[in-house]
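Possible regression after last week's pipeline update?

I re-ran a chain I had predicted before the update to compare outputs. Posting the input and the new output here so someone can diff against the archived version. Not blocking, just want to make sure nothing changed silently.
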Amino acid sequence: MNHQEQFPPQQQGHPGATSEMTPKPRDEMDGYHGRGLLEGRIALVTGGDSGIGRAVAVAFAKEGADVAIAYLNEEEDARHTAELIRRAGRRALLLPGDLQEEAHCIEVVERTVRELGGLQVLVNNVAYQEPQDSLLNITTDQWHRTFGTNIHSYFFVTRAALRHLPDRSVIINTSSINGLRGNKTLIDYATTKGAINAFTYSLAQSLVERRIRVNAVAPGPVWTPLIPATMPEDKVKKFGEHVPMQEPAQPDDIAPSYVFFAAERLSRYYTGEVLAPIGGETLPG
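New output (post-update):
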């Protein structure tokens, strides 16, 4: 099957729905067998309803964690993710609302702690992008929305979580290849992802004495609802073909990176790192 047959032109409104994608992404961690690496842990995953967030939430559940997922308003996707978590024998908590709002960021943390009984693993993953051909086309509203979703929410959620995270907890931030080398049509998005990298490095230094490990995952192209919801059809049909592997990742390909960082047994000596699953692309430095 060639690339264009695999990804027919398609577009949908933001924030996008998994059910409307052709083909459906692989995001349920089918065939993944947990080893109890997160047994007894409680995790909060923002943007956890679909895509990378869904795969991470399900992988965490299969490793023994109860999982809260925060998302905007994608109820169908969120309910399905919760069902997948429960099938793995763990508790799921759904937390809809706009994470651009500081009060809601605080609320999702407080509800996680209150309703699930604590918090030891935080995944800041929610994201927004809107391609533009020129900086001149980025409106002030778009700039604020991208920053509000992609970096301000990370700050608000993390600050609220630090009041509850015990020592030896874990924070994992979702960055992007675009935060490592920029993107001429995603200037605001790439800028927030670069900020996430600096946030990760700085917070890791700040929390090292508490042994709270802070790391980031910076994927290349990944087939998620964000793509048909924010890209024009002609770019969707070519999505991911520019990397050496000539295809985008599936969310299931990326989630194990988060398990690696979340599990002390695997990554006790890692903090302040950015792991980049980018399909064979190499970067200088």
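Follow-up from reviewer: compared with the archived run. The first strand starts at residue 42 and ends at 46. Marking as no regression found.
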